[in-house]
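Hello again, I could really use a second opinion on something today. My current little project is about how a certain protein chain folds up. You're getting the sequence in one-letter code plus the fold written as tokens. Here's the protein in full, and shout if anything looks odd to you:
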Amino acid sequence: MTVPHHATPSADVDAGSGSLQLHGYWTLDHSGDIERVLRDQPGEVKQIDATGIDRLDSLGVLELLRFAERRDLDFASFRFRDDHRSLVAAIEDVGDDRPQRKREYGVAAALGRLGYAMHNNAREVVTLVGFLGETLVKLARLAVAPRRFRLTSTVHHMEQVGLDAVPLVALLSFLVGAVIAFLGSTILADFGATIFVVELVSIAFLREFGVLLTAILLAGRTASAFTAQIGAMVSREEVDAIRTLGLDPVELLVIPRIVALLIMLPLLTFIAMIAGLTGGLSVGAFSLDIPPQAYLARMHEQMQLRHFLVGMSKAPVFAMVIGLIGCLEGLQVKGTAQSVGERTTSAVVQAISLVIIIDACAAIWFMHMGW
């Protein structure tokens, strides 16, 4: 079968506007000619006019997509015939679903991966700061119009975040307090200063371990739950439906969760402090021959209110960080089950890492301030 002359892919460049006019059949049968035509085009091409293409299939669209990537052109600005637009849209949606290349090894590849990771992390930080600003603006708007605040949803999340977590927080804090008392007594017994276990456990839990353990537990338990809940709503297009109804997803989904965390995390921190101190008291009474009365009396004499205030001051900050990361990762779900899993894992990792980093910075700052 003879191919018509006009079917051969060709292109003409308009030197004035930098527009590339495409003609012919851009199909699989002419793949070699398509590759040659695009390869030979000058560098001053700024836009593509494909309305002159008579026939177009998936290979032609993919070749144009790759040409746009190589020349750093905006594929959305390419002009196509109306009967080709549905094909172009379908191929554009799956154009990036090619199998990934095998992992490259070497110094250059490692530096490249490091650069991409740093860029992605910086972008995540900027996004988180922007989301914080948006949330604060919406909270200020609720303060002006309190009738918009969703009390029922907030109370529901307070139960999930706080009440359901009390047994776990109390048990783990009690055990960690007991472990700290055991480890401290092992060292202090060599110096005949076992009684200083009281100060060790009290300062550790009032300043650091109470709030840190609670925040890490909620980062793994609550941030993942927030991400999975909101991510599932995104994948089922419920968030789009909320926007269609004229409602604000941040006001409807994010603020009740963050307010619940801001209320419950300080309360859970207080419970963790009491449980940790009780763990130290139990070890002192049953293993170190320190009567409970003597333990409590020394703690009352030596402990200062500032240790408790330092620990509690970090609780609202950790609550805001955990809530923002969990909700933001949920809103960034792309709509697939794999994306929900990836974002949930990312939320837990980011929340725990950021909590520990903030706690370390706060500890250094309070130490230098003499608090």
